[in-house]
Specification:
This protein is an all-alpha fold. The chain contains 16 helices and no strands.
Length: about 450
């Protein structure tokens, strides 16, 4: 556990964000291994099937991830205010809610897989492997939720290293199991899915075992968990808008995927490959934003808003410098990066085209995410929700429909980053208003 209310803001943010960034590099590598093995050793149809599954998985976990964000903010603010009894109650409540949600969503997901794939206009030659992959991943949702819940709790307490260590172990295991199940046993996309589920399970259970032995405040008896209605309401108040925000994003991605899927298997495979690289470039901004959210929560809980402002400007500088470096690398090596996932010339061309179109807009993405990190850490979660709704559903989705009819698939690529620019403007305007400072949970309590 780490107290972020004292010390140099820039150094604290770097030290706290770095393990999360490294962890997400491993997380993306974890996902990339699936795509690499599937794309190179099974075929582009299977690569497209894995890509078609992602928006559905994202949709199913969006609300729960939002609740985890809410618990992260609550825990950070109570920890900053040194109210350890409330911290313990928030941890218990988080475990109970995530367990119940995982059971409900698993049952629903297993029934709804095929109808959702049909809604997304997934081609017939991809339907079989896509439904197989999805059913296996959905069966392991309880492990996915568990890992994300533990990670949110730890970040709220200022510990970003423990999830990293467990993720490294899971990534190494995932690589080994992917090669064993897909190449050794010949299980196809089912092998890639089982490798992911087993690796997440090891990561989750390893985190619980480690915490039980090293963090006294996190030592948990699952038969004696205490549900706190007041904290649940606070988590829901903050987490529900965050979850709805994630849901809006996931529904938007599903809609965008349905537009992309209409252009055929080559475009689907190219988009899937490019999206894996896209995720890497977006990671630094997302992790700096998560670190800043915890930093903001703890310092606002300790009634130190000026430290939050200084942390925000430090985070912006760090994020923009990293983004500039990554964008240059993307523009110079995009074709080779896409080629990691497929040797098909048309797939590589399409994926590279996507990266070239969106690359300059990563700066808007970075500023938007970091600004939302401060706002969310304060508990003012409605603004990121509003920003996402306007950017995704009033700007990006209509633009994708219009541009795709005018210019074909490249029009979809141009529609992608339009939402980032609009979202950035909304978030910056609200930050400048200063109203987010009044949303702190501990102050209102």
């Amino acid at each position: 556990m780490k107290d972020l209310t004292e010390g140099d803001e820039t150094k604290l943010l770097i030290v706290f964000a770095l393990p999360m960034l490294i962890g997400n590099v491993f997380q993306q590598f974890y996902n990339m291994v699936d795509s690499w093995v599937v794309g190179n050793y099974i075929g582009k149809e299977s690569l497209a099937a894995v890509g078609a599954s992602f928006p559905i998985i994202f949709l199913m976990i969006s609300l729960v991830l939002g609740f985890s964000m809410g618990s992260n903010v609550i825990i950070a603010q109570y920890y900053g205010a040194k109210k350890m009894d409330k911290v313990r109650a928030a941890i218990d409540t988080t475990y109970i809610v995530l367990f119940c949600a995982s059971i409900i969503l698993t049952a629903f997901g297993l029934v709804a897989v095929v109808p959702i794939l049909h809604i997304l206009r997934v081609p017939d030659d991809i339907m079989g492997p896509a439904s197989t992959y999805l059913r296996i991943i959905i069966s392991g949702l309880i492990l996915t939720f568990g890992y994300n819940g533990v990670g949110a709790i730890l970040r709220g307490l200022g510990d970003s290293k423990t999830p990293l260590y467990m993720l490294i172990i899971a990534t190494i295991l995932n690589v080994f199991l992917d090669l064993l199940f897909v190449l050794g046993f010949g299980w196809g996309v089912a092998g890639a899915a089982w490798a992911t589920v087993i690796s997440q399970g090891v990561s989750f259970l390893g985190s619980l075992l480690y915490l039980d032995r090293t963090h006294e405040v996190l030592r948990t008896n699952f038969f004696k968990l205490r549900f706190d209605k007041e904290i649940f309401a606070s988590c829901l108040k903050i987490g529900l808008p965050s979850g709805l925000q994630q849901t809006l994003v996931s529904l938007g991605l599903m809609f965008m995927s349905s537009v992309v899927n209409g252009f055929g298997t080559d475009v689907m495979a190219g988009f899937t490959a490019a999206s894996r690289i896209d995720s890497f470039v977006a990671m630094p901004a997302m992790n700096i934003a998560m670190a800043l959210s915890t930093f903001s929560g703890q310092n606002l809980g300790a009634e130190k808003p000026e430290r939050v402002r200084r942390g925000f400007y430090a985070a912006l500088l760090i994020g923009i410098l990293i983004t500039a470096f990554l964008v240059v690398g993307l523009l110079t090596a995009g074709e080779h990066l896409v080629g990691i996932f497929s040797t098909d010339g048309e797939v590589i061309r399409i994926g590279t085209q996507y990266l070239w179109v969106i690359a300059p807009f990563y700066f808007a993405f970075t500023i938007m995410f970091i600004t939302n990190g401060v706002i969310r850490g304060a508990g003012a979660v409605f603004i990121p929700l509003l920003s996402t709704f306007v950017a995704m559903w009033l700007i990006r989705v209509p633009a994708a429909v219009l541009f795709s009819r005018l210019w074909g698939v490249i029009g979809v690529w141009w529609a992608m980053p339009t939402g980032w620019v609009v979202g950035m403007c909304i978030s910056l305007i609200y930050y400048r208003s200063g109203r987010w400072i009044q949303k702190t949970v501990t102050k209102n309590a």
